[in-house]
Amino acid sequence: MNKFEQLGLSESLLKAVLDLGFENPSEVQEKAIPLLLEKDTDMVALAQTGTGKTAAFGFPVIQKIDANNRNTQALILSPTRELCLQITNELKNYSKYEKGINVVAVYGGASITEQAREIKRGAQIIVATPGRMQDMINRGLVNITGINYCILDEADEMLNMGFYEDIVNILSTTPDDKNTWLFSATMPAEVARIGKQFMTDPVEVTVGAKNSGSNTVSHEFYLVNARDRYEALKRLADANPDIFSVVFCRTKRDTQAVAEKLIEDGYSAAALHGDLSQAQRDGVMKSFRGRQIQMLVATDVAARGIDVDNITHVVNYQLPDEIETYNHRSGRTGRAGRLGTSIVIVTKSELRKISSIERIIKQKFEEKVIPSGIEICEIQLLHLATKIKDTEVDHEIDNYLPAINSVLEGLSKEELIKKMVSVEFNRFINYYKKTRDISSQSGERRERSDDREPRENNNGGATRYFVNIGSRDNFDWMSLKDYLKETLDLGRDDVFKVDVKEGFSFFNTDPEHTDKVMEILNNVQLEGRRINVEISKNDGGGRRDHNGRNSGGGFGGRSSAPRREGSFAPRREGSGGFKSDRGGFSSRREGGFSSDRSRSEGGSDRAPRRSESFGDAPRPRRPRRD
Ligand code: ADP
Ligand code: MG
C-alpha cells in the first residue's frame, strides 16, 4: 500500500496522484488529509510555501463534496489571481477521474459575466480572490449560503494585502455550520484574529517551526556602500552564471530602473510591477517561466503569488519596509524540497534589520563578501568550459566541418582551446580588470578576518581550491563541506569558504593541508567520475583586486560590462514592447538554459508542470479591488 492510500484517499484521487507523479505525501499532507477526511472539523494549518498545501486541502475537499449535487459546496479564497488560477488548475487535475465535479475560478481582470455563467452551469467548488468574490456576491451572481467548506489559502498574504474586510464580509454570508480550513505560511496576529472570529475548536497542524522560514533556503547578506548596490547585484549575477532569480526592490520606480539598467548591461532581466499593463505582465511571466528571463525584478505586491519552481536565488536588492515581508520573498525559492538562497544586499545602516529578520526566521544569516573581479572571471571561465563540454553537438554542423577545419588548420589543441574560450571571455576580463573591490565588511567580520592575516596573498593565508563537483551532483555548501571533511579526514573548521556552483565548486583549507587535499581528492571517484581538484587563483574572499582601486569603472561604468544574451523588459514609454538585446557572453537561451531545464525536469519525478498552463492565462490581478 503506498503512502497516499494510507491517508484514506479514494480510488479516483489515487489515480490522479499517480498521474501527478507524487510519490509520497508531504508532511502537511500527511498530517492534514486524514484529519479532514475523518471528520468535519475546522482546521488551522501552518506550513511554509512550497510544502504542498494545495493538495493538503484540495484532496479532502474533492473527496468530501457531493458530485451529484450541482450547488456550490466549497469556497476557496486565495490572495491573487495567479494563485487562484493555479489552485483551480491543480484541483482540476486532482479531480479528473471524479465525474461531474466543476471547479470555477473567480478573479478580477476577466469577464465577470463569463464567470457568472460558468457558476450557473454548476460549480461545486469556487476558487476566488476576495475582491472579485465580494463583487459577485453584491451583484447576486453567486450563492454561497449553502456551502459546507470554506478554505482560506495563504491567509497571511490575503490579510497582508488588505483583504480583511472582504474576507469578513464574504464569510458572513456563509452558513455558521460550515467548516473553515485556514492555510497559512505564518501566523501573524490578524490571522489569529480571523481564526478566533470564524472558527470553532480548530485542529491545528503545524509543519516546521511557527513563523520560521523554510529550511531549504539558506540566507546570506552582503554588506556594501549604498552607491555600490547595483554593482553588487551585477557581480552576484556574474558569480552565479546559472542564476534564475527574483530581485526585490521597494518601489515601482526602483524596480523599473534596476531592470532597465540590467538590460542595458546585457543581462536577461525584466521588471514586474503594478504600472505595467496586464498584457505586459503576462508577457513577462511567460518569459520568466520559459527562462528567457534570468532576473525578474519585482515589487513585493507584483511578486505575490509567483509560483515558479527552481528559482535559485531570491535577491533582496533593498530590504522590505516590513521585515515580515522577508519571509514571503525568500519563500519564492527553495520550493518543493529544492535548495535555494536568499541574498540580502545591505548597507551598514540597515544591518540591525538583519538581526531582526534572524529572529523572525529563526535562522542565521551568513555574511558573505561580494566576489572580486578575479574570482568572477574564474567562475565564468570554468562555467564556459563546463558549458562547452556539456554542449550537445547538432550534426547539421558536420557539413561545415571541412570549411571550418581548413580555417583552423595548424592550430594545436591547446591553442584552439585558448582561442575558443577567449572569444567569449575577453570582454569579461577586460571589464573586471578595471573594477575595484566593492565590499564593505561589518565590524565582526573585519575582526575575524584580520585575525587571519596575512592578507597580502589575497587569501588570508589559506589555499583555495577548484573542484569539478557542484550542485548538479546534489551538493550544497553544507553537504559539500561535510563530504570534504569526511573524505579528507579533516576537522570541523578545516574546510571553509565552500562555494558551490552548478558544475564545480571552490573551497579553502589552511596550507598545511594542501598536499593531503591534492593527493586524496585527485584519487577519489564520485559515482564513477574522477574528481579533479586544482589550486585556484581566485581569493575566495572578494578582497581587493590586484589592480587595487577603482579607476572609474564600477558603478554606472556601464556597457563596458559583459553582455548577456536576450533581455526582455517592458519599458514604460514607447509601445510597451520588449527590448531584446542579443549577443552576449553566455548564450544561455540556446545552450545552458535548455539543457538546465531538461536536466531538472528529467530528473524530477513529478510529471506535469503547472507553468505551461498559465503561460497564456488572461490577466493578472490588481492587488486590491479586483
Ligand atoms: P504551497 O501551497 O504549500 O506553497 P503547493 O501546493 O503550491 O505548495 O506545492 C508546491 C509544489 O510541490 C507544486 O509544484 C506541487 O505540484 C508539488 N507537490 C505538492 N505535493 C507534492 C508531493 N506529495 N510530492 C511531490 N510534489 C508535490
Ligand atoms: Mg499555496
From TrEMBL:
Keywords: ATP-binding, Helicase, Hydrolase, Nucleotide-binding. GO terms for molecular function: helicase activity. InterPro entries: DbpA/CsdA_RNA-bd_dom, DEAD/DEAH_box_helicase_dom, DEAD/DEAH_RhlB, DEAD_box_RNA_helicases, Helicase_ATP-bd, Helicase_C-like, Nucleotide-bd_a/b_plait_sf, P-loop_NTPase. Pfam families: DbpA (PF03880), DEAD (PF00270), Helicase_C (PF00271). Residues 443-456, 534-548, 562-613 have a biased composition (Basic and acidic residues). Residues 225-376 form the Helicase C-terminal domain. Gene3D superfamilies: 3.30.70.330, P-loop containing nucleotide triphosphate hydrolases. Its EC number is 3.6.4.13. A motif (Q motif) lies at residues 2-30. This is RNA helicase. The lineage of its organism: Bacteria, Pseudomonadati, Bacteroidota, Flavobacteriia, Flavobacteriales.
